[in-house]
Write a structure and sequence with these properties.
alpha/beta, 4 helices, 8 strands, 4-stranded parallel sheet, globular
């Protein structure tokens, strides 16, 4: 099964996916969920960024099993079919074009695809541009944070 998590930039798609993986491990003592990271040709935004698999443009264009791909600002993003585990619920955070690519162009049975939209609370819709463009920081608190969400 593939769970496509879609929503606006900064809404918390990765947070939702991370929570599902973590809770699956915590409460069920097994990994029912796996998170799929997109390959990208863009440079990391900060040191040790773990939100994508970074590769060269040449490497990206050589993949022959892409199930979704998009180009944003001259950088390519996409996922390979070989990344998905048929024995788990694969969580893939993707934009609207990625959802369309997977639903329309992949050979994956649509009954095996669930699309989940993460929406921003109404009171958070007018976030200032500078806040949206801020780099994510490591935990600034003196205690561990289990989840971060918008």
């Amino acid at each position: 099964m593939i769970v496509l998590i879609v929503g606006d930039f900064g809404v918390g798609k990765d947070t939702v996916a991370d929570m599902l993986v973590k809770e699956s491990l915590r409460h069920h003592d097994c990994a029912k969920f796996t998170k799929i990271l997109s390959y990208t040709t863009r440079a990391p935004r900060y040191e040790n960024e773990e939100t994508h698999i970074f590769c060269s443009k040449e490497e990206f264009l050589s993949f022959n099993d892409l199930i979704a791909q998009t180009e944003i600002g001259g950088n390519f993003y996409g996922a390979r079919k070989s990344q998905f585990d048929e024995n788990k619920a694969n969580l893939y955070c993707v934009d609207e074009k990625g959802v369309e690519d997977i639903l329309e162009n992949s050979d994956i049975d649509s009954d095996d695809i669930l699309v989940v939209e993460v929406i921003r609370f109404k009171w958070l819709r007018n976030i200032p541009e500078e806040r949206m463009n801020r780099k994510r920081r490591d935990n600034p608190y003196p205690y561990p944070i289990d989840y971060r969400t918008s």
